Amino acid sequence: MTESRLADLTARVPGLRLLTELTDLIHYGRDWTRRWGPAPLAVALPSDAAEVQAIVRWANERQVALVPSGGRTGLSGGAVAARGELVLSLQRMNRVLGFDATDRLLEVEAGITLHAVHEAAREHGLLYPVDFGARGSCTIGGNVATNAGGIRVVRHGTTREWIAGLTVVAGNGELLELNRGLVKNSSGYDLRQLMIGSEGTLGVVVGAQLKLTDPSPPAQTMLLALPHMDALMEVFGLFRSRLKLQAFEFFTDVALKHVLAHGAQRAIDASEPYYVVAEYDALEDRDEQAALLAFEEGVREGWISDGVIAQNEAQAAALWRLREGITESLAPRKPYKNDIALRISAMPAFLHEMQALLARAYPQMEVVWFGHIGDGNLHINVLPPEDMAQAEFLAHCERVTRLLADALQRHGGSISAEHGIGLVKRAYLDSTRSAAEIALMRGVRTVFDPHGILNPGKLFE
Amino acid sequence: MTESRLADLTARVPGLRLLTELTDLIHYGRDWTRRWGPAPLAVALPSDAAEVQAIVRWANERQVALVPSGGRTGLSGGAVAARGELVLSLQRMNRVLGFDATDRLLEVEAGITLHAVHEAAREHGLLYPVDFGARGSCTIGGNVATNAGGIRVVRHGTTREWIAGLTVVAGNGELLELNRGLVKNSSGYDLRQLMIGSEGTLGVVVGAQLKLTDPSPPAQTMLLALPHMDALMEVFGLFRSRLKLQAFEFFTDVALKHVLAHGAQRAIDASEPYYVVAEYDALEDRDEQAALLAFEEGVREGWISDGVIAQNEAQAAALWRLREGITESLAPRKPYKNDIALRISAMPAFLHEMQALLARAYPQMEVVWFGHIGDGNLHINVLPPEDMAQAEFLAHCERVTRLLADALQRHGGSISAEHGIGLVKRAYLDSTRSAAEIALMRGVRTVFDPHGILNPGKLFE
């Protein structure tokens, strides 16, 4: 059965690169979640949109489930192939197709890494401003699938803001050129927007037209130590009103401990429960003066106990490593991850409630928090005790996540800020989206993918 | 039949304000297009979302078509009720519901005017940056329906960028709270984005959470006279690279003639075929210096023949009136309007082709152009000769629009940049969207509005 399906695929798409070795199946069958055993049927590595379209048409006829696959750095299981799916990897479709200086558009294939996009933009003296730690491995197609956010959202918004056009093979096999790079286009439903954040369940993104912008002005990076949680919000309010923020990230002392143990350098003497890495425009002396005044005001108010300003790029990189190194430093411990969002105004009340909840729910576990205060986005990583079996740990975390989801629902938040729903959060989708919304989403999915071949089981049960 | 349906509606929604007088039917049955005779069944003026929901449910059961209605300033016939529909006017739902300074969100009912939103934002020391001439009459619900653009898109983007949440009664009668003001939310399809630009065919927008931003820095306004069409693109490139543009609008000598005849003041001596109103940040002396240098360079290159810089707010308003007064000055002549978009880089070749096409197609008619070069958006208004019957004029214009649509298709443009498709452009939708896209759009429509009661005949035939 399996062999006849693959033989049929090979016959239809002559020259298609297809991997079936066990090591390849394992490599391409999982993402960074590591919770599901990879078990794909095979791995297809198409070289162009026509091959992708042929694969999708074959999958419709033969009823084969497909898992669109980019850099597999996802944290929601969206790119896991654990049930005999064909992995459709965009890895070989990684070229820059064009650049237009007048439109300031970079046209790329979906399998290009975020880092390569940054480099290509820089070559043209411009900036693609979406950025986060996985930049070297994650791909634009995957960024589109989850509407990736990251560390510059407070200034530049999420991936959605930077997509001027998408080339997509819909689940029904049709090749779509959505919006084609236009600034203004009020001619019917914006299916480009619908595709962004749809986690590979409506279509396979094969290409994108990315907006570029002017490079950011020179920035200064500051590390702050804060004595308590409420100070986080106060300092954010103070800094936002005085400085042009490019980033405002926070993490806890527990996060700091892990990242220091993983090789980062201590940059501040104070030992406090909360830390902030802030980056802001520093074009002129008066900008630096404004930052100093804001810092001093924070100290006077008792919100800041210590701080350091990077004196050069190397120091700035060292401060950033304290924040950006957290995920990597925790990875060996296989943490359970929550990625939640609230309105910024809802955060203080929610933070207090959540802190009490987590203390009760995880008395013997380490809980590592960090995130993006300016976007209302918190990452909560729970580390398993050394002596607890993974299944027991996961079951316990799932019970707590239900409580967290209930709290989020009360506070009007979201169970996924930027990781997506995938497999990991699908049981909690109903905490963020109403039954009526989910019914409409299922209906839309059926329109795009009538046979349900694209990423089945992801997003919806 | 009619009476029994309305009696049923009144019984179900006690207290619903319902208008049935002929003058009201005429007033609420048409928009600024004036091409279709208004003939609604009646006009409902609900006072809250619950009443809207009850009306939509009644319409589903009784198979009554609804026309969602805001300020009816639309130019595509999207709010025309010419076939016995019930007009569902949001006029009474025009309140500001709340403001949050931390989130910088203004929560409003959909029937509030754009001008009232500007005022409310200003009261809080902030800015809602979407702006255009119809601000005093158009409503936020209508702005969302067409993803309204206007004169600040080059700086601030379209309405889409400023919607943090939408409250919608879907065509199936469900009340949806879409995105609820979150900055980040990767939990399934972004139905808020799908709703924006859907022209009242998927749901009735009853409320919105609008993002506000810092007020724009002080600006300077400049009027330029340009000797030929290619100079438009050159001057745009020059100004964009040197100044922080807030707006870059152009119009022709024919447009100028009409707006002067309509009471605007001549502000420049030169008589040239093209004019530009540019607005740019002027925070400091060096900004004004940069503008002067750019102007001088444009003159040296032969792209600019004359120019004037506003010395105060009254002069700036007078310059702006030359551009913003065009639509009003043409209205008595009932022009045929095209509102097209291209990639900016595609404009020079398209402009030459279009100019030849229009000269051939409209030899005896006045053609008035203006628009937003920085967004790739051209408005083309054709004025009927005094002695031509309207039907003949329209038939002729429709034939030319087909040629224009074909040219747009070749150049990768859109038949509607910001007016929407409505009734006016639905025959040309296939020039901008592929058959596969239109089929998906129809499918999505059926999911949201299974009985096809919302704005039938708009957008699709």
Task: Give a written overview of the molecule.
Two copies of one chain form a homodimer. By secondary structure, chain A is α+β, with helices and mostly antiparallel strands. The first copy, chain A, folds into four domains: 91 residues, 2-Layer Sandwich (Uridine Diphospho-n-acetylenolpyruvylglucosamine Reductase, domain 2), CATH 3.30.43.10; 116 residues, Uridine Diphospho-n-acetylenolpyruvylglucosamine Reductase, domain 3; 109 residues, Alpha-Beta Plaits (2-Layer Sandwich); 86 residues, Alpha-Beta Plaits (2-Layer Sandwich). Helix content of chain A is 37%, strand content 20%. Chain A is built from 16 helices and 16 strands. In chain A, strands 13-10-12-11-15-16-14 form a seven-stranded antiparallel β-sheet, sandwiched between helices. In chain A, strands 5-6-9-7-8 form a five-stranded antiparallel β-sheet. In chain A, helix 1 packs antiparallel against helix 3. The model of chain A has no long low-confidence stretch (mean pLDDT 95). At the A-B interface, strand 8, helix 7 and helix 16 of A face strand 8, helix 7 and helix 16 of B. Chains A, B: Pfam families: FAD-oxidase_C, FAD_binding_4. Chains A, B: Belongs to the FAD-binding oxidoreductase/transferase type 4 family. Chains A, B: Keywords: FAD, Flavoprotein, Oxidoreductase. Chains A, B: Its cofactor is FAD.
Q: What is the CATH level 1 assignment of the largest domain in chain A?
A: Alpha Beta
Oligomeric nature of the chains: homodimer
How widely separated are the two ends of chain A?
26 Å
Under CATH, the topology of the largest domain in chain A is which? Uridine Diphospho-n-acetylenolpyruvylglucosamine Reductase, domain 3
Number of domains of chain A: 4
Strand elements of chain A, count: 16
Radius of gyration of chain A: 23 Å
Q: What best-fitting shape of chain A do the alpha-carbon axes yield? A: globular
**Can you name the CATH architecture of the largest domain in chain A?**
2-Layer Sandwich
Structural class designation of chain A:
alpha+beta
Largest interchain contact: A-B, 74 and 74 residues
Overall average pLDDT of chain A = 95
Spatial order of the strands forming the largest sheet of chain A: 13-10-12-11-15-16-14
The stretches of 5 or more residues of chain A where confidence is low (pLDDT under 50) are none
User: The biggest beta sheet of chain A, please?
Assistant: 7 strands, antiparallel
Helix content of chain A: 25-40%
Relative strand content of chain A: 15-25%
The count of helical stretches of chain A stands at 16
Protein name (chains A, B): FAD/FMN-containing dehydrogenase
Family (chains A, B): Belongs to the FAD-binding oxidoreductase/transferase type 4 family.
Domain FAD-binding PCMH-type (chains A, B): 36-215
GO molecular function, one term (chains A, B): oxidoreductase activity
